[in-house]
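User: These chains co-purify. Model them together.
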Amino acid sequence: MSLDIRNLTVARGPRKVIDELSLPSFATGEFAVIAGPNAAGKSTLLRAIAGLLPSTGDVTLDGQALHALPRAEQAKQVGFMPQSLESRSALTVLDSLMVAMNAGGGLAGRALRGPAAGRHALEVLERFGLADLALRPMAALSGGQRQAVGLAQAMIRDPKLLLLDEPTSALDLARQFQLLSEARKLAREGRIVIAVLHDLALAAQWADRVVLLEGGGLRASGAPAEVLTPQSLSQVYGIDARVERCSEGRVMVMVDGLSQP
Amino acid sequence: MSAVETILAEQSRRTQRRVLLVALLGLGAVLSVLLDLVSGPSGLPLEQVLQALTGAGEVPKAAEVIVWQVRLPVAVMALLVGAALSLSGAEMQTVLDNPLAEPFTLGISASAALGAGVAIVLGLAIPGIPALWAVSANAFVFALLALGLLQLASALRGGGSEVVILLGIAVNFTAAALLALVQFVASPDALQQLVFWTMGSLVNARWEGIAVLALVLALCLPFSLAASWRLTALRLGADQAQGFGLDVAHLRRWTLVRVSLLAAASVSMVGVIGFVGLAGPHIARMAVGEDHRFLLPASLFTGALLMSLASVASKLLVPGILLPVGIVTSLVGLPVFFALVLRREAR
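Assistant: Joint model of the two components:
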């Protein structure tokens, strides 16, 4: 299975946020990180792949034009975890998963109704360490909990492609670690996982590949050590940065100052 | 019992409780209709009312006429109008993601009133419609026009709910201003008729009107219930719902069509009735939560219950005088509603 993105363009009014973007294929098992400065089009790219924004160009998953599929069909293949779950809802976490399962027309080939559906939802919650929150209303969750529930919602239909929009922005260090190792594990189980991350240290630590965007176009794509160099960081972010390898061979990024006034 | 089993048991206990609450609200609605049937200025004994209804035993002709041609149409109309307004309010609040949305706040009632005013005061009606139905038909068409405008706005602006709400408020004020203009030029006689209509009243309930409203409700309800998972998904945010595989713009559009038909049909039959479309869904939500599989039927029954009780109150509040039911829903209903909301906030 592979994900191919060719000539993707996303316009917001007259402005092209993503302009004719083509990326090297993503392959099953890969955990890729999209990085880049603010307004580079990271989240826009992710949302366009997920089919949440109108776009032109080709997004092909497993040889299938993804956006030509009906919405419900797309949702079975693609899981999208938003940066923050905006929710004042009194629905419980478990209810929200039942909704995520049933709203798009149910799960393909699985008659999950009543207790069986509840059991499946709880399995997913348990996997992400959220079972304790099952009966808690969504509105009563902390930001971090809500973000984690977002991942469970995205995973409930067991998608082949998982898209995470700044999944660690509300998480403490332990939970960042937990979520990213889980994301990589989900990829290794036979999915493609793509996350937008601001934190380059995390990107360097976890990603198989970093896609560096700048101004709606591709700057570089490849292994973290290839993409995250002092030169590219200086050009893209306008910073003086050192990129060093620590004893385990991991890439570390240290910012010393701004390279442009 | 493992943690999973405990949670599942609790979940099914909650589901049972919601089913029970919905059933109780339904029972309450039925009982309130019976109460509506036995209350009235003529003071018929309960026994005679029941006999007239079932056709069993000897019933005086007068009792039969009172029950079948006065009380029953009023009671059934109250039931249907309450159910339709409350259901449309519930769906509107969800698709527009606004707890204040209802036919009244979005200018649908005001537009219907304007339509009625045009018929009553200016004598302008849709050709081919019998005089008896001219006012209702006009009100229906104007209400649909208002909703068509809202739909158009939302289609042009990509289905955003803020645009719909702002435009609804604008429609409300425009219709109210135009209605004031119509009232300004009205003869005293027509003015009185129009004011009475805008107060909302059940006394003109007729079986033909009931049939129309029942038909609209019967057409819309299955689609509403079928959309209940999708509507619940909207409570988690439009973006998230889209990610779950919903076509949110499509859902919004068709829900607004259903809501429009329900609201326009109700308002055109009985005039402006505020509060029920707002309070019905809120009370239902307090009872059964946001899962629309329960919320929609609960709203339906709560609206029917509220409207039937308002109908009863309109007969009993001032002995010998039948108050317009629209006044009663607001005067009696709002304090009750406030109390419920404040009690919930206090918890």
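Chain A has two domains: 2-90+157-227, 229-261.
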